[in-house]
Design goal:
Blueprint: H1 3-10, H2 15-44, E1 73-75, E2 82-88, H3 93-110, E3 115-121, H4 130-141, H5 146-155, H6 157-160, H7 166-176, H8 181-189, H9 194-206, E4 214-217, E5 220-221, H10 227-241
Parallel strand pairs: 2-3
Antiparallel strand pairs: 1-3, 2-4, 4-5
Helix pairs in contact: 4-5, 4-7, 7-8
Length: 242
């Protein structure tokens, strides 16, 4: 039986037509893939420091009251031309995402002396483990490991956020960081730094900061906390300070 007659009787498609359809599908998938990649690039591309879409200070806005920085935890040059402040809750998922940006900020701007970073505890009532986590970071700070514990808490948030015994998990982190366990446990059990955390929370209340993370570059509040907007605003304010 001839090939053409066989296809007519069986309804089988022509091999050439089948190959053509496969090629068309591949081309369409490639086009869609390129479009998706291009879209992601433009969505995630950091805005230019000169972009008019970046947030600015409110008209006639007062400078941030730097005197309250004593109630947060600060790192960096005291005379840095730009100060970034974050009000956050260790159990807040959005804060955990912003933690990647703050780590990059410390590496690229704080270590060079261009920026000082201040972290304010704002444990929200709906997060039962937010206060213990804030205490854990400050207890680690007693042994010069505040920022290491800070990063560990955010990086492992999913492991302890729903725990009924977060202190046990935090103690394990303390051991991983080489801290003296008995000293850390005593600090946690006595809630040694609870007053300091509550003072930080009161600063947020006085400044009417109610959501986390709230991030400010000097007196400019970010509208989309993340590395893109953060780095662009920092660069703009550094240029102004020159």
């Amino acid at each position: 039986m001839g090939e053409a007659k066989r296809r007519k009787q069986t309804g089988a498609p022509s091999p050439r037509n089948t190959q053509g359809r496969k090629s068309l599908i591949i081309v369409l998938l490639l086009v869609i893939g390129v479009a998706v990649i291009a879209g992601l690039y433009f969505v995630t591309k950091p805005p230019a420091p000169s972009s008019e879409a970046l947030p600015v200070a409110a008209p006639n806005a007062d400078e941030f009251p730097a005197i309250v920085d004593q109630y947060g935890v600060s790192v960096g040059n005291e005379d840095a031309p730009v100060v970034v402040r974050e009000f956050a809750d260790y159990q807040c998922p959005a804060c955990a995402r912003f933690a990647e940006a703050s780590q990059r900020l410390k590496k690229e701007y704080v270590e060079s002396g261009k920026v000082r970073f201040v972290y304010f505890d704002l444990p929200l009532r709906q997060h039962q483990n937010a206060m213990p986590a804030a205490l854990a970071a400050r207890c680690a700070g007693d042994q010069d490991q505040y920022w290491a514990m800070h990063d560990k808490l955010y990086g492992s948030q999913i492991d302890w956020s729903g725990s009924n015994d977060p202190t046990a998990t935090f103690t394990r982190y303390a051991n991983d960081l080489g801290l003296e366990e008995r000293r850390f446990r005593r600090c946690m059990e006595t809630e040694l730094h609870r007053e300091a955390v509550e003072q930080s929370l009161q600063v947020a209340v006085q400044l009417r900061v109610a959501s986390t993370p709230t991030v400010m570059v000097d007196n400019i509040q970010l509208t989309r906390p993340g590395w893109g907007q953060l780095s662009a605003v920092v660069e703009r304010e550094l240029a102004k300070a020159e």
